[in-house]
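Journal club prep, notes for RB
We'll compare a predicted complex against what the paper describes. Inputs for the S-adenosyl-L-homocysteine case:
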Amino acid sequence: MTATPAWPPQSAPRLHVETQLGEGVAVPVDGNPAHYLISVMRVKADDIVLLFDGRSGEWAARVRDVRKRDLMLDCISRTRPPEAVPDFWLCCAPIRKGRIDLIAEKACELGVAKLQPVLTRRAVVDKLNFDRLHAHLVEAAEQCGRTALPELGAMVKLDALLKGWPAGRHLFFADETGGAPLGDALERHRGPAAFLIGPEGGFDPAEREAIRAVAEAVPVSLGPRILRAETAAIAATAAWMTINGDWRGPPPTA
Ligand code: SAH
């Protein structure tokens, strides 16, 4: 008896596309994604590729024509419905290239719903390359199996963010000068949340006061050591996912 091959094949490359996917839809691929499929993954006609468009889950598609710089895929059938990601935003000050790229990649892998850049007074960087950040989110989503990218917010100033803060969304504020121990704070404040992480230079005293004045703000400490901004962002997200996100199992039965 021969074993039935896995469907979709486990080795199938995964690719994010802009085309709205559906049964029978033809999907043209060019540019860097085509280079990835043709030259890196060496796909041939009839190979299966997994596609996601950020809205409709994941689809298996068959390679039709492979040319030098582009190829055409035929979308066959849906392999997974869109998954729900926990209602968690990561709000962080822009930091240097490389370090902010790391935050984007890890935020996507960890299951963040939205990445929100926030401009603060001591930020060393005041512009971000959103195309590059988007590319990091896409690559991370392809690799980790997400069917939708995290939303990438436009840069906002801290005071605007605080002014429009949505009622009912906890604002965990990573305050390097001290706050509630994180584990306790997370257990006490369940539900939709966001983490606010400062830049390399930290928050200034007036900013700290303004954040603490928001009704939803929960100042927290990430322990006795000063973490780099990207370490704080990644560690805080992992901690939230563990206590309140989708790393948690069902509640124990008594
Ligand atoms: N230059 C600042 C440190 C900034 S660290 C100083 O020397 O005080 C960058 C950001 O990471 C901080 O603004 C804060 O949001 C977060 N962070 C780092 N370590 C932290 C800690 N131990 N507790 C809470 N937040 C921390």
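Talking point for the session: Residues 174-176, 197-198, 201-203, 221-223, 225-227, 229, 232 surround S-adenosyl-L-homocysteine (CB under 6 Å).
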